[in-house]
Amino acid sequence: MTTMAPTDTPSTQKPDVKKLFSTLCASMQPYIMFRIAQRVADLTPELEAKNRSPIKMSIGAPTVQPPKALKDVLLKAMDEPVHTYSTSKGEPFFRQAVQQRMSERFGVDVDWATETCSLLGSKEGLAAMFRAVITPKTEPMDKDIILIPDPGYASYVDAINIAGGTPYSMPLNPDNNYMPNLRRVMQELNNRGYNPNNIKALVINYPSNPIGAMATMDYFKDVVTFAREHNILIISDIAYSEMVFGDTEKPHSILEVDGAKDIAIEFHSLSKPYAITGWRLGFAVGNKDAVGMLGTVKSTMDSGIWKALQRAGAFAMTSPECAQFIQTMNKVYEANQQFMVAGFKKLGWPTEALNVPKATFYFWIPIPPRFDNCDSFATQLLETSGIVVVPGTAFGPNGEGYVRLSLVNPREELQEVLDRMTADGFTYEGNL
Ligand SMILES: Cc1ncc(COP(=O)(O)O)c(C=O)c1O
Prior knowledge:
The chain is an alpha/beta fold. The protein folds into two domains: 29-65 and 323-423, Aspartate Aminotransferase, domain 1 (Alpha-Beta Complex); 68-319, Aspartate Aminotransferase, domain 2 (3-Layer(aba) Sandwich), CATH 3.40.640. It is built from 14 helices and twelve strands. The chain has a seven-stranded mixed sheet, with helices on both faces. Strands 9-12-11 form a three-stranded antiparallel sheet. Strands 1-10 form a two-stranded parallel ribbon. Helix 11 (307-318) crosses helix 12 and helix 12 (320-346) packs parallel to helix 14 (411-423). The model has no long low-confidence stretch (mean pLDDT 95). It binds pyridoxal-5'-phosphate. Pyridoxal-5'-phosphate (PLP) binds at residues 60, 121-123, 153, 205, 209, 237, 239, 269, 271, 277, 282.
């Protein structure tokens, strides 16, 4: 056996691992919510010392226990033969539950075997989908383009960048009723020197994070027409489809539009409706080529969801107990919203400035005029009062001037937020 002889003189040069990183990753920062969490952890001793323990209004994660019936299914499933690998696409029983759900909730017929795929949360699924359509390039103007809502879910930008594409903002404003005109976006992109032929996909997200905006069926029809005309994949992120208040019409799936399945894939999440953000359960459904390629990409990265969780997920999607849980929680979120709207009005926020959506559990509020930008407001609110909110620009440049609060906390904490803001001078017109 031959071995390599050690060199007599070890190199004095210090290795530089950082030099080895991909150019796409080198300038990347951890996901915004984890950055905020780290900053809060660092500040906690200081905040506790002045009686301002952090109150986290930042992350969109329900804090209540999931439905008992759902936990029972998970516990029981442990005794089944569920402890070996699943597949990236998921077990047939899970995907059949997806088929049932799509039919009962949206009136959309899908074939579980070819048009559905399980996801370890929709965040993971979206990231894999971006990789499936983007051919990585480094020259900025050559890159494949994905149109994304701005403000929109913060993860889109990172996931597209790391896949070597360009995330291109579609501004959501009151002026366009939060439904951007796609032809105008394409025209503007062209005027700015981008090549419209590089557009691979467009992301829509209704009800939307962070605004809570909803889309009309007419808009969905228009999106489908546009996407078919230009052969652009529609990636519909419908993570908040179930979180709607009162007798508001339930959000639609874009797959309800005739011909949508030829060009659209939709990403659903079980995280928020069943208060199981940590379980990592979601599914994709729609165009079979897109679903197939998604499954292939995923198979290089994951080995599927733990089968016991898939059992529980299938139960969640089809059981009346879990549907009832959603109804109950939506009433809680709506009441929280009304409570906070009243509280912010008392703090001086003008009624017309407060966006009061009919869906999601987010509260998207303008910053007081004396603050230069949303970052400085969010930072002062954290450092002075221990209240953790997300600056609007975390969701895109068009989010400047706003912050997002997540209304999932117990009522006492919401009250404490309002009390601290009053005591610490965070009124709309105040001079802090
Ligand atoms: C719009 C939107 N899409 C997708 C996700 C990801 O959810 P999950 O990965 O838990 O399914 C989130 C989470 O906050 C979201 O806000």
